Amino acid sequence: MEQIIEVGSKGGMEMRTGQVTEVGCTERIRKLNGILHAARPNLEMQRTRVFTKYFKTHESESQIRKRYFAMAEVYRTLPIHIEPGERLLGWQGGKIRCNNFSIESHAHWLESDFDTFETRLFDPWKIDAKDKEELKNEHIPYWKDKTLTSKFRAQTREPDVLLSSGYVDCSNYISNPGSHFVPDYHELFKIGYRGYYEKCEKLLSDLDLIDPDNVRKQDFYIGMMEVCKGIRDYGIRLHQAADAQAEKEADPERAEELRTAGKRAEKICWDIPENFAEALHAVWLNTMMLNVEASGPCINVGRLDQLLWPYLEKDLQSGVETVESALEWMEEYNIKCCNIPWLLPEGLAHCFGGYYRWTGGYSVGGYDANGNDAVNLLSYICLRSARDTRTTAPAVHVHIGSKTPESFLMEAVKLAAEGLGHPSFFDIDSVYNMIQYNGAGLNGANNLPLKLIRERATTVGCVEPKIEGYCYGHTNANITNLGNTVSLTLTNGILPEGCPGYGAGTRIGCESGDPRAFKTFDEFYEAFMRQYKYQINLCQEHMLVAERLLAEEHQMPLFTMMATNAIEKGIDVVAGGAMLNSGPHYMLTGVADMGDSLEVVKKLVYDDKVISMDELLKAVEADFEGYEEIRQMCLNVPKYGNNIDEVDMLTSKALQDCAEYCATLKCGRAGNYSSAGVQPTQTNVAMGEMCWALPSGRKALTPLADTLSAEQHMDVNGPLAAIQSYGKINHSACTNGTILNMWISKTDLIAE
């Protein structure tokens, strides 16, 4: 292990001096990494062709049967591509870094973005000229009025307020269903896809077909069995392709490697894994297929070090694997995960830029079911693999508790020091608290046993707490702009004319009152909460429509298969098949802008009375042009992030009030409740570009504060003071998770 540590450290040092892409622990990994970075994101048409053909020729079938049988055919006919040196076979399409996209989710915007698709500013895509014509002439005309977004627009009032005003934004929810999901690999590894097939076969034969509740389940089980067979057939084709390539291979060692990889792929596409390589390959293939089925991000693995350690431990003891070979396997997995880019319309690409789909991420560390430290050798190998490959995916989450070994923390810190953006650090006890109250309403708990939570608690995507296999709920369903909530409080619900997008100069909020008439800060705060609740209520109304559309139109068989006990229920996950249903969840953006602005109003207008509300409103309306003296007064008011109780506690109170209101809203799927979180990692820029000037002194159309961080350049008392401010937040109130990003200059860390 020490030798590996030195290799990883050397690689990290070399990366600081140049743009090296061919990095990794072995020559195999270095070459695969170079191939990855040489490829550009491109579109794969296979899924689109299958869906268009199947839906056109089976229009009279039930929606669930059409979707299940179409997905079975997608899996059965996935293009097969094998790169030199790879052993974890399976790609989304015939090229690396492709997206086998969901035409039924994207057709409406593909048409409008078509002419600039390859040249647009944010996340352009390569597409074959013939494929582009085929899309334009055959697939888009058929699907553009059938997408969830098209139907959503037709079935809701004022949809543009929800899609393009910068007030709230739910476009990601209906454009990208199927996200932030952790499969039940425990069950998959026990029974394999064969076991799911046999389970469905038995449940189908036992159905009482004169029971009206069972009529729809017939298509459910028949379709699910077809999906299992489609996956089985894909494994057979992978085996055949690997054998065919082995026959042409001049290197006998590589030829045998191909034959072994092919056998392994066929086996795990039907039966259970029995060693580390098979288990890791099964994780990869299932992750890849889930990403083909859905169009959303953050399909993760869960506690990978706990899931795979029993297999690796046995292989290390028998000599089948070594620490070095296990590291190479994990690094190949990293490269594979980095090959699934995210397809978005340009507006959303601006919010979530970089093609980053957060695929295959996992958690390491934490506790076991009995509350003991769960760190093992694979935990360290995972951290080292991320340092070696330097890939943006998979995201690595480090779970920390009071029993976490210092040596493990040091390895995590070394990875963080590489500047790659991971790992993320999580207080595991806070994660447990969030899970216990997730989906249970404001004052309820979901009654999940603590032992289960300890064993299967994980984090997915940015920070969202989940239980492996148990949870389903779209966690980035709505982006709520808290900066604009403050702005609309100042204007009595009217979006300032200078804002771009829909609704500028008109009332898109509620009439919360003229701030000039408010005699106390409490009155102003009540008006702020009225605007917030109006905003959330409008979004909730639309989210219920979106949930109904998803349940009726967008069933997902592999997601459902991977959800604990959903097959036994005979209910697709989009209709409530999961054990714990929650959401749609509300993502709050601009927390510090909200807190700092409220503090300025409180201090300057009401407490110290140094300016009038009218003077403040005129200055903000003018974007402080001609009001620099007032702006400086606003900027000099104490800011969140400096360990100053007055502003920190006001920010914490406002965030908790916002989060608790979300927890009172019942969702349509299985009758559970929604929740709030602070996890958008890029939306502060795009949402800031749609937000006018604020009392904090922030200028119009500039970025909002990132996640739970202080406003840019406002945390001036150092990182310790900032951490103390952030510690005053009641993070557990945001049961969908919170992020704190701290950016520390190298010069602050490295001694002269």
What do you see in this structure?
- With 752 residues, this protein is mainly α.
- It has a four-stranded mixed beta sheet. A three-stranded parallel beta sheet has the order 4-5-6.
- α1 (2-15) packs parallel to α17 (377-389), α5 crosses α6 (129-143) and α14 packs across α17.
- The model is unreliable at 1-19 (pLDDT under 50).
Topology:
Blueprint: H1 2-15, H2 27-38, E1 42-44, H3 46-57, H4 63-76, E2 98-100, H5 103-113, H6 129-143, H7 148-155, H8 159-164, E3 168-169, H9 171-175, H10 185-205, H11 215-248, H12 252-268, H13 276-293, H14 304-318, H15 323-337, H16 346-351, E4 362-365, H17 377-389, E5 396-400, H18 406-417, E6 424-427, H19 428-437, H20 450-456, E7 457-460, E8 464-467, E9 471-472, E10 478-481, H21 482-490, H22 521-553, H23 557-561, H24 566-569, E11 580-581, E12 586-589, H25 591-607, H26 613-621, H27 628-636, H28 645-662, E13 676-677, H29 683-688, H30 719-726, H31 746-749
Parallel strand pairs: 1-2, 4-5, 5-6, 9-11, 10-12, 12-13
Antiparallel strand pairs: 3-10, 7-8
Helix pairs in contact: 1-17, 2-15, 3-4, 4-11, 5-6, 7-22, 10-11, 11-12, 12-13, 13-14, 13-15, 14-17, 15-17, 17-18, 21-22, 21-25, 22-28, 25-28
